[in-house]
Structure formats: structure tokens, C-alpha cells
Amino acid sequence: MTDMIKNRRSIRKFKPDIPVTKEQLDRLMHAAMLAPSARNTRPWEFIAVTKREVLDEIARIHPFAKMCKTATAAIIVVAVPQEGLTVGYYPQDCGAATENILIEAVAMGLGTCWCGVYPRQERIPDMAALFDIKEPKIPFCVIAVGVPDEAPEPRGFFEEAKVRYIT
Questions:
Q1: Which of 72, 87, 146, 159 could form a disulfide with 14 if both were Cys (CB 3.0 to 4.6 A apart)?
Q2: What is the distance between the alpha carbons of residues 101 and 27, in angstroms, rounded to a whole number?
Q3: Residue 26's closest CA among 101, 88, 86?
Q4: In Å, how far from its chain's centre is CA 123?
Q5: What are phi and psi of 111, to 5 degrees?
Q6: What percent of the chain has pLDDT over 70?
Q7: What's the CA gap between 1 and 6, in Å, rounded?
Q8: Edge-to-edge strands of the sheet including 73-79?
Q9: Measured distance CA(122)–CA(148) in Å, rounded
Q10: By C-alpha distance, which of 45, 12, 32 is closest to 149?
Q11: Mean pLDDT over residues 55-64, rounded?
Q12: b/e burial code for range 59-92 (CB count within 10 A of at least 16 → b)
């Protein structure tokens, strides 16, 4: 598992002629739904996109999702805010589901790029309209998916100065 975490990269260039299959998308969303959530509320829904015109529209309306022009799929994570004891936890829950998708994609030889929508209020209306997402649901993020056509260097690293041990 550590190797998959170490090998995860934000891919911004994909091989546009190699499709992501429904079976691959299903596997990614299965992984997402294994994520922990507050009181197991699972405040998420997913939209799987392989239609080229829709991927191109995502690239047009989201200022940082231009890689959808070469990606052959995208997964839209939709947050479903909760009431009661779990109010306000959906960002953490959807973030955990998103990370599971990213790590599972590495295990499958796929690349991904996580493009945030929420909490940027200027991005939410266009994404909600494109996918007919009605309030109180919120488009949380776009995950571009495909076969990588680049191999970026790692950017993450351990910084001991950011850790405090209490023993």
C-alpha cells in the first residue's frame, strides 16, 4: 500500500485513445465507498463520465480541469450534506472517498487528477448545472481518470519539522 501512496501523482496528460472501461470505473467507485464516514452516513454520490463532449465541457468550465481534454473518464464526487450529529462532516468524508479513488487508480495502472469544486462558490453553479445536481447536494470535486501519458516527479515528502511527538 505504501508504494501505491508513494507512486500517486496528479496526472495532467492522458493517452486519449485508451478508454477507461465501466468495469474500471466501477472498481474505483467500489473503493470510494469503502472510505470511512462520520457515523457511517456515506454522504456521497458519484457520477461517472466517459462521454467526450461532457469531458470537454468540464475542461471548459473548470479553470483547473483542462486535463479532462485528454482524460477518457471523470468521476464527479457529489456531497450529500447531513443533518444531526454528522452535520458538517461531509467534506472530510468525501475527501476520504476521493483519496480511495486516487490510490485504487494507481493499483490499476491508471492516472488521476483531483480538481476541487467545493468550497469554491464560483465553481459550484456551473458544475451543478452540467450534471443536474440539485441542492442540498453539492458537486465536491472532479477526478480526471485515464492512462497516464506523463510521469511527473514526486512532489510530496516527509517533513519531520511538521510532526510533534508526545511521549
A1: 146
A2: 9
A3: 101
A4: 15
A5: -110, 155
A6: 100
A7: 9
A8: 44-49, 73-79, 138-146, 111-116
A9: 29
A10: 12
A11: 98
A12: bebbeebbbbbbbbbbbbbbbbbbeeebeebbee
Question: Could you tell me the three cell numbers for 81?
Answer: 450534506
Identity at 88, one-letter amino acid code: G
pLDDT digits (tens, 9 = 90+) for 5-31: 988 999 999 999 999 999 999 999 999
Q: CA 133 → CA 19, 129, 163, distances in Å? A: 26, 6, 40
Start-to-end C-alpha separation, the chain: 27
Side-chain-side CA neighbours of residue 12 (13 Å): 6
The C-alpha cell that represents 64 in the structure block: 483547473
Nearest-angstrom CA–CA distance, 119 and 14? 27
The C-alpha atoms of residue 64 and residue 114 are separated, in whole angstroms, by 10
DSSP β-ladder status, 44-49 and 73-79 = antiparallel
Q: Which residues pair with 138 in a beta bridge?
A: 79
Length of the chain: 167
Residue 117: per-residue pLDDT: 98
What pLDDT, on a 0 to 100 scale, did the predictor assign at position 1?
74
